[in-house]
Amino acid sequence: MNSRERRTAAGEPSSLNPDRPTADTPAALYQAGLADLRAERYLDAQLHGQQALALDSNHADSLHLMGLLSLHATQYDHAAEWISRAVAQDPRPEFLYSLGTALRHQKRYQDAVNVFDKAVQLKPDKAELWTALGKALVDLERRDEALLSFQHALKLNPQLWDAAHESGTLLNRMGRREEALAHFMRCAELKPNHAADDATTFNNIGNTLQSLDRSAEALPWLDRALDRRPDFVDALVNKAIALSQLRRFDEAFAIYARIKALNPNHVVSNWNAALLHLLTGDFEAGWAGRETRRDIPSLSAGYPKFTEPMWLGRENIEGKAILIASDEGLGDAIQFARYVPGVAARGARVILVLQDALCSLLSGLPGVSQCIPKSVAANGVPPFDFHCPLCSLPLAFATRLDSIPADMPYLPPLATGRVKAWEDRLGPHDKLRVGLVWSGNPEHKGDHHRSTSLRAYSALLDVDATFVSLQKDPRPNDRATLLERTDIVDLTTELTDFTETAALISCLDLVITVDTSVAHLAGALGCPTWILLAYSPDYRWLLDRDDSPWYPSVRLFRQPESRDYAPVVDCVRAELTALISRWEQAKA
Questions:
Q1: Where is 350: in which H helix or E strand?
Q2: Is 60 exceeded by the pLDDT of residue 11?
C-alpha cells in the first residue's frame, strides 16, 4: 500500500478525490505556483508553472500563470504569447483581462480594445472589465466611448475607485471640470485612509479646482496631498500654479525652488518658473528659463532636430546662413518676427520657416532671403550654418523691458489692391468700424481662462458702430448667435490666411479681442487694439498695467479678482461709447 492509499485508509481526505488536485498534477502545480506568485516568490512560481506545463503543455491556468509572471517582469511580448495560448484553450474573462493588459503595454491599443470588448460580452456584470475597456479606449483617444465604459462600471459598482478616478481624469481632459471634480470627490470618499491613493486624489481635486479658477479652495487639498507625500512633485507644481493665480508670487517661487532641490531637471516646473519670471518682469531669468521648452515633448514637437549649431546671440554670424524656424503658436510667431530684421542686420542670410498661414504675411520682412512654409520644409531645407527657434530671439537679443523693439508697424506693407478689395466689401465708412474676436484655439491649454463667448459681448453691440467679425471657426453656440445677429458683418469665409486678415484689419478703426493671434496681428499692424485679459494673464502682458511695451497701439482691459469678463465688457463698452463720440465729432 502506498502512502496515498495509507492516508485514505486512515480516514484522511483522499488526494484521489476528483475535486482535489494531486501533488503531481498540472492543477496542483498551478495552485502551488499561484500561491508563490501571491507571496511574491516569483522564481518558485515560475518553476511550478514550468513543471505543470511539462505535464500538460496546454494547461490553461498554467499558461496564464506564466503570462502573469511575464507581465510582472515587464516582458510584455512573452506575456502576450503565454496568455494568448491560455485564451486559445479557454477564453475566460480573467484571461482576456490579462491579455488586454499585455497588449496595452505593447501599445497594441486596438487589439486591446477588441480583447476587452470580448471580455465584457462574456461577463457584462464585471465592473473591472468595463474599466479596463475604458482605459484602452482612452489610449485610442476615443474619449466619449471611454467615458461611457467608466460610467457603466460605476453603475455596476459605485464603490469602484479606479473607475471614478479614470472618469475624473478623462472629464478633466475633456474640459468638463465640474463633473471631474465630483468624481475626484467620490474618490476621496471611497478611500479615505489609503495614503497613496489619497495623495493622488487630493492632488486631482486641487488641480481641478485650480483649473476652475478656484485656487484658494485648491490649496488646502494640495496641502493634504503633500501631507501624505511631502515629495509629491505634481502636487507641488499644482500648488505653485495656484499660488501664482492668487498672485502670491514669492510663495510660488519658493515652491519652484523646493521642486528644483528635489529634481533639478523637472522641466515642467522650470518652464512654469520661467513664465512667472517673465510675467513679473524679470526678463533675464525668464528668457533663459524658457529654453526649457526644448525638453518638453508637447512644446518641442514642432521644431526639427538639427545637427547644425544653435545660435543664441553669442557667435558672429556675418556672412553665415541662419535658419529661423517658428517653434510655438501663430501669435508667438507674429510677436517675435520683429527680431528677424535685426538678425539680418548682423550680416546673416536669413532663411525663415513658418506656419503655412503666415508665410505670405511675413515673407517680406527686411533681410529675409527665403521664406519656406513648414509643410514644404518637412521635405528638406537649404543648407545653413546656424539655426535659431523664432521664440529664442528675445534671448539672443538680451531683451529687457526697456529694450523691446517696438517700432510699429513692423509687418511688411500690404498690397494696396488687397486692402481696397476689403474696403469695397465693407461698404461706406459712415460709422466706427470695430473688429471682434471672442475666443481662441480650444486646444490651447489655458483657453478656458482667456476665451469668452459672442453672447458675452452683447453689451457692446447696441452702440452705434459697424461691428465686423474676425472670429475664425466659431464654436457651435457662437455660430448660432452669430447667425442671429444681423448687426455683425461676417466675411470670415474670405479670410484664407493672415495676409487677408491683416488687410481687413487695416480697414478697421479698432479691434476688440481676447488674447489670440489676432491680438498680435492687430498690434503688429499698429491698429488700435483693446485686449480683454484673464486675471492671471499670459506672461507677455505683464501685470497691473493697461498698456503693452510690445505693442504701443494696444490697450489692456483686465479681469478683476472675481475672474469675470462681465465687468471687463462693461468697461470696454463705456470706453467704446466715448471713442464713438470722439470719432463722430472728428468726422463732423
A1: strand 349-354
A2: no
User: CB–CB of 326/390 below 8 Å?
Assistant: yes
Q: Is 556 helix (H, G, I), strand (E, B) or coil?
A: strand
Q: What is the pTM of this model?
A: 0.83
Which parts of 392-470 are beta strand (E)? 433-437, 466-469
**Considering only CA atoms, which of 407, 302, 323 is closest in space to residue 368?**
323
CA distance 290 to 278: 9
Sheet harboring 510-514: ordered strands across?
488-490, 466-469, 433-437, 510-514, 529-533, 554-558
Residues 243-297: tens digit of each pLDDT:
999 999 999 999 999 999 999 999 999 999 999 999 999 999 999 999 999 999 8
Is residue 407 a contact partner of residue 352, using CB atoms and an 8 Å limit? Answer: no
Of 302, 300, 327, 307, the residue nearest 385 (C-alpha): 307
pLDDT at 447: 79
Cβ atoms of 283 and 364 within 8 Å: the answer is: no
Complete DSSP assignment for 33-92: HHHHHHTT-HHHHHHHHHHHHHH-TT-HHHHHHHHHHHHHTT-HHHHHHHHHHHHHH---
Instruction: Please give the Cα distance from 368 to 378 (Å, whole number).
Output: 19
pLDDT of residue 446: 75
pLDDT at 195 exceeding the cut of 80: no
- Cα angle value 321/327/331 (rounded, 5°): 115
Helix (H, G, I), strand (E, B) or coil at 156: helix
Three-point CA angle 157, 159, 164, nearest 5°: 90
Least confident of 95-104, 302-311, 503-512: 302-311
| Model pLDDT, residue 555 | 98
Fold of 321-403: Rossmann fold (3.40.50)
Topology of the domain covering 416-587: Rossmann fold (3.40.50)
User: Which of 80-84, 124-128, 327-331, 484-488 shows the lowest mean pLDDT across its residues?
Assistant: 484-488
Q: Give per-residue pLDDT as tens, 380-416.
A: 999 999 999 999 999 999 999 999 999 999 999 999 9
Distances (CA, A) of 307 to 299, 383, 385, 397, 468: 19, 11, 10, 23, 47
CB 494 within 8 A of CB 530: no
CATH code for 207-219+226-301?
Answer: 1.25.40.10
Residue with cell 521664440: 391
List the chain domain ranges: 207-219+226-301, 321-403, 416-587
